[in-house]
């Protein structure tokens, strides 16, 4: 039982708009910094309900919850956050956050999952939030936070790459093992991890969405980090397409100056935009060429496994393709 918590023998309640435990509701406007917690209790009281070991449910003062210092997600969409704030003001928090007691201070908690919900709850003016309290080690805390965020759409490519890197480094697993654990192909993980080779300046532009993942893959073809930064600046300043960026990579690696521009290609801008979006969607290089009567679209893949991944993204099974 946590420090500053009130004991109760009831099971964790089902999800509802009520932010209370069976031992009583913590007032949202209360000043006391306490956590109202319900033990796992006797699950036999409810048919079909099983208690979860080392887990409790309760209402916790938002000021007692500290952010996860290793949260992989660093960018939050302000518009989506504002929508969540409005929803919480209207109907409350429907999905509890997940926390653990801090080893260094048993009266406080550390967030495992639900940073957007916690931020929105504070912005909505609520003083407490429903929480599931888990008793986990540091390695489990990091793994759970990373896996939760990896299965969300909000991570930008750099955050996703950093999350992969943390899992590989901290847990000593291979890319193949990570692939099996999170349900993503090894080539996809490998290609994403390559983004960490970009210079910090370029990484920041990718994280901010100023440079697309397709541009980033083109930049990675350069051997010199200084050339990477130069090309990134040209991409932003001149609006270079991915294909023009790839041409620049060839020139820079040969030691030539960059003389490419948006006008160097005969392919219409709308076709280049399609190839770029498709490349980002499939996480690979996509080329498009247009002749007088017909065009050609080519999709690169590293190996058979990577081809299966691309086919899966297109909704095509390997058996259908044969």
TrEMBL record:
<dbReference type="GO" id="GO:0003677">
    <property type="term" value="F:DNA binding"/>
</dbReference>
<dbReference type="GO" id="GO:0007059">
    <property type="term" value="P:chromosome segregation"/>
</dbReference>
<dbReference type="InterPro" id="IPR041468">
    <property type="entry name" value="HTH_ParB/Spo0J"/>
</dbReference>
<feature type="region of interest" description="Disordered">
    <location>
        <begin position="1"/>
        <end position="51"/>
    </location>
</feature>
<feature type="domain" description="ParB-like N-terminal">
    <location>
        <begin position="58"/>
        <end position="150"/>
    </location>
</feature>
<keyword id="KW-0159">Chromosome partition</keyword>
<feature type="compositionally biased region" description="Acidic residues">
    <location>
        <begin position="39"/>
        <end position="48"/>
    </location>
</feature>
<dbReference type="InterPro" id="IPR004437">
    <property type="entry name" value="ParB/RepB/Spo0J"/>
</dbReference>
<dbReference type="Pfam" id="PF23552">
    <property type="entry name" value="ParB_C"/>
</dbReference>
<dbReference type="Pfam" id="PF17762">
    <property type="entry name" value="HTH_ParB"/>
</dbReference>
<feature type="compositionally biased region" description="Polar residues">
    <location>
        <begin position="1"/>
        <end position="19"/>
    </location>
</feature>
<protein>
    <submittedName>
        <fullName>Chromosome partitioning protein, ParB family</fullName>
    </submittedName>
</protein>
<comment type="similarity">
    <text>Belongs to the ParB family.</text>
</comment>
<dbReference type="Pfam" id="PF02195">
    <property type="entry name" value="ParB_N"/>
</dbReference>
<dbReference type="InterPro" id="IPR036086">
    <property type="entry name" value="ParB/Sulfiredoxin_sf"/>
</dbReference>
<dbReference type="InterPro" id="IPR050336">
    <property type="entry name" value="Chromosome_partition/occlusion"/>
</dbReference>
<keyword id="KW-0238">DNA-binding</keyword>
<dbReference type="GO" id="GO:0005694">
    <property type="term" value="C:chromosome"/>
</dbReference>
<dbReference type="GO" id="GO:0045881">
    <property type="term" value="P:positive regulation of sporulation resulting in formation of a cellular spore"/>
</dbReference>
<dbReference type="InterPro" id="IPR003115">
    <property type="entry name" value="ParB_N"/>
</dbReference>
<dbReference type="InterPro" id="IPR057240">
    <property type="entry name" value="ParB_dimer_C"/>
</dbReference>
């Amino acid at each position: 039982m946590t420090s500053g918590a009130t004991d109760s023998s009831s099971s964790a309640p089902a999800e509802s708009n009520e932010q209370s435990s069976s031992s009583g509701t913590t007032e949202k406007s209360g000043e006391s910094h306490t956590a109202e917690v319900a033990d796992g209790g006797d699950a036999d009281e409810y048919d079909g309900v099983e208690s979860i070991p080392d887990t409790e449910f309760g209402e916790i003062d938002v000021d007692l919850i500290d952010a996860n210092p290793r949260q992989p997600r660093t960018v939050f969409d302000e518009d989506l956050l504002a929508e969540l704030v409005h929803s919480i003001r209207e109907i409350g928090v429907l999905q509890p956050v997940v926390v653990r007691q801090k080893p260094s201070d048993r009266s406080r908690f550390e967030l495992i999952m639900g940073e957007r919900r916690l931020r929105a709850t504070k912005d909505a003016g609520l003083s407490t939030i429903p929480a599931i309290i888990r008793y986990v080690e540091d390695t489990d805390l990091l793994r759970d936070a990373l896996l939760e965020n990896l299965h969300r759409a909000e991570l930008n490519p750099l955050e996703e790459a950093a999350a992969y890197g943390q899992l590989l480094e901290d847990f000593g697993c291979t890319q193949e093992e990570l692939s099996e654990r999170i349900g993503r192909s090894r080539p996809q993980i490998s290609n994403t991890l390559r983004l960490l080779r970009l210079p910090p300046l370029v990484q920041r532009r990718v994280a901010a969405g100023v440079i697309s993942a397709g541009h980033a893959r083109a930049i990675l073809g350069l051997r010199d980090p200084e050339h990477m930064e130069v090309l990134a600046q040209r991409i932003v300043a001149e609006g270079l397409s991915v294909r023009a960026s790839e041409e620049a990579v060839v020139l820079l690696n040969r030691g030539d100056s960059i003389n490419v521009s948006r006008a160097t290609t005969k392919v219409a801008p709308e076709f280049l935009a399609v190839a770029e979006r498709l490349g980002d969607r499939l996480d690979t290089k996509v080329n498009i060429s247009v002749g007088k009567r017909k065009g050609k679209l080519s999709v690169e893949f590293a190996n058979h496994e990577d081809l299966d991944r691309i086919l899966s993204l297109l909704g095509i099974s390997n058996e259908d393709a044969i």
